[in-house]
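Hi there,

I know you've been waiting on this one. I reran it after we fixed the sequence typo, so this is the corrected version. Both the input and the resulting structure follow.
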Amino acid sequence: MVGLEKLFTDKATVVIRENTKNATTKREEYTESNLYTNIPCRLSFNKDNNLTLEENNIGFMDKQIIKLFLSNSYDIPNGSKIVVDRTGKSYIRSGESAVYSTHQEINLELFQDWV
C-alpha cells in the first residue's frame, strides 16, 4: 500500500444491475450481481462550498457532498450501487470519476432505488 491508500480504512462492494432472461418464465428480469467486493476505500463527507440550501421537513440544511476515494485500478460503471461497510448504507455513483495518477474520486448520493 502506497501513498493515499494508507488512509483507505473502509471497504466497498460494487453492485451492478443486469438484464437477464428467466429460464422458466422466458421474461426479462433484472438481477443484481457484485462486480467488486471488499475494495479498500475511504468515504468523505463535506458541505457544499456553494452554500446551496435544500429544504426538508424541519427547515433548511446545508447540502452534503459524499465522495468515495479508491484505487484507480477499478472501473466503476456509472449508476452502480456501492455499499460501504463503515456506514452500512448504500450509495449510487453520480457523475464521472476524477482520476488521478494515485487514485480516483467518485461523487455519491444515497441509494434509493435503481434508476
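Quick highlight: The domain at 3-21+28-110 is CATH 2.40.10.370 (Thrombin, subunit H).

Best,
R. S.
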